[in-house]
Prior knowledge:
Layout: E1 2-7, H1 9-22, H2 30-50, H3 55-66, H4 72-82, H5 89-110, H6 114-143, E2 152-158, E3 166-169, E4 174-178, H7 190-199, H8 206-212, H9 214-224, H10 226-235, H11 243-252, H12 263-281, H13 285-295
Parallel strand pairs: 1-2, 2-4
Antiparallel strand pairs: 3-4
Helix pairs in contact: 1-2, 1-3, 1-5, 2-5, 3-4, 4-5, 6-7, 6-10, 7-10, 8-9, 8-13, 11-12, 12-13
Amino acid sequence: MHLTWTPNASASALHASQSICVYGDKLADVRVSESIGKYALNLGKWIETAAPFDSARFWSLLIGHSALIDSNTELAQAVVRKAAVRIDNKSATSQLSGFVSDIEAAYNQLFPKFQEQLPLRARPIQEHWLGFGPGLLAHLGRLTQKDLLVPEARVVLLQPILGGAGYAHIDQNIVRLEAVLTNPLVELPEVVRLAWLLSQLQLDLPVHSDSIGTNLLARIAPLAMLPPILAAAEVMELGRCDEAVVELAIEHWHIPVPKDRDVHSEIVPVMMDWWETYLQTRPAWQTALQAFAKMLNLQ
């Protein structure tokens, strides 16, 4: 897999904004909240109004596209066009572009040397990836299917806001990753997190997504790829694949789970049962995904 590493200030600023709105009490750098907090919350409220039933997807589209489009007007046009908003498209484009510009201006004042510092912060994860990444993906392919791996992808590097975080933009072949200098958790090295993010990108192929639908895929992909990547990490002696580590990953990697389910007693045991069944029966991955959704009672 060929990776293109791209530090991006705009994506970093918008990632920080989403983090403020969603994980406000978990920010590792309080200066960020002090500098862009009011702008971020204004954007968050606007998104909840513009896309009340799909705000998570709106954030994903916005942050992902911000790493590819320099013009804020063009960025807003692209996101509004792809997202179902409740506001007139012309008005929505103007408003969204203004929110993004305000956030970027405040963020650039806080991190004026972003473009100089991020490549330096990226070196540890890039070096670890060279050492362990190909092996992790090779073992993942053996444990699942080799065609689950994309041939190339872009890694958008971010200023750390949560002390370690990442997200897979499946429909854009992009992952975003906070460039932390050390592993926040010994049990979950950042190189394993990156492999987990990259492992989700191929799931938008019709052979996988058509069987369960795009919306459901977005919900189960992070969970479904967790046991296999932890199993690959165990082979590489980078960690363990057991219920305790799966639960730790769900918490610290901010993996969404159904709010009415207990992670310890309901989610994790089902995930591990599903994974053990998969290893014993080896169905096609799209069949495994369907079974996984059914076991978790997701629709």
